[in-house]
Amino acid sequence: MNLNTRFARRYHWRRREDFVRAPHEAVVGERVNGTVNAIEADKEKTRRLLLDLLRENPRNVASDFLRAMAALKGQGTLDGWVHGGTIGLLSQEAKLVYLRPIDQRSVIETLKRVHEGGPNSLEDSLLMGMGPSTARALYLVADLIYREPLSYRDPVTYPYDPFKYAFAIGGKDGIPFPVNREVAEEVIVTLEEIIEMAKVEEGDRRRALNGLMKLGEGR
């Protein structure tokens, strides 16, 4: 959701069994500068490194992050090269991502919590509490220390076109307006009542309710 325009991107999922390797068939929206993209198909090596970092001693990862952040801000050096990485290789897009404010204490606590949970995948780490700040910290370490950069290409495949991509709750002229959560909730509840009252087989009713439940989870 873009908090300024109050419009959301539209994601078309290719598959649901893998959310970290190019899962989208298409992404509709406005391209944004300073985007970090960890799901590019050709970044499998980087994703493996991120998982290895989450399994590493949190103190070591936190130390690498603090050194890299100090060097990024010009407050220290990495002695030119560390494990093949150098600050001179960071693109302007990467710096826009990494220079965003980060609560370092919170990141360190999250790294400890995820490490204790023993994640088997990046999806596991998200369920264990890894959020945007911790992810950016890991990206910086991967990029600057280990020279395994993420992609900084916005995954949007189709620019936003309100006359082509309308929403279920919006103007009939094809131009969507900001989603009203109360209206959206009311629509879902009404559909649930219709399904409950419909004269259909119990199996069909259950499948319809399950589909509606998944829709509700994505709102």
Polypeptide structure, described:
The chain is mainly alpha-helical. It folds into three domains: 1-32 and 154-175, no CATH class; 41-145, no CATH class; 180-219. The chain is 46% helix and 5% strand. The chain has eight helices and three strands; from the N terminus they run ββααααααβαα. A three-stranded mixed beta sheet has the order 1-2-3, with no helix packed on it. Helix 2 crosses helix 6. The termini are close together.
Characteristics:
219 residues; mainly alpha; three-stranded mixed β-sheet; 8 helices; 5% strand; 3 strands
Short description:
The protein is mostly helical and 219 residues long.
Q: Look at the helices and sheets and give the structural class.
A: mainly alpha
Radius of gyration equals 21 Å
Quote the average pLDDT: 76
User: Would you report the number of β strands?
Assistant: 3
In angstroms, what separates the terminal alpha carbons?
11 Å
Helices and strands, in order, run as: EEHHHHHHEHH
Major beta sheet, specifics?
3 strands, mixed
Our count of domains comes out at 3
**What proportion of the residues is helical, as a percent range?**
40-55%
Low-confidence runs of at least 5 consecutive residues: 80-88
